[in-house]
Specification:
This protein has 65 residues and is mainly alpha-helical. The protein contains 1 helix and no strands. Helices cover 20% and strands 0% of the residues.
């Protein structure tokens, strides 16, 4: 959803809470639990959402009978 909060950890392993730098992730999680609107202590950049592609608008013509 557009309101989702994300963070990118460029040096993070795919299992972030088991990574060598897991304390950074833990602090961000705890911060979010305490105040979901507060910035993350790590100042991790948000994940850039991919653009949503929609089908082009189509027009259906009806023949008069």
């Amino acid at each position: 959803p557009p309101s989702a909060r994300t963070a990118v950890y460029p040096d993070g392993y795919h299992m972030l809470i088991r990574d060598l730098h897991r304390e950074v992730v833990y602090e961000d999680i705890l911060s979010f639990i305490r105040d979901p609107g507060a910035p993350f202590p790590s100042q991790a950049a948000p994940l850039r959402p991919e653009p949503v592609h929609t089908a082009p608008e189509t027009h259906i013509a009806q023949a008069n009978r």
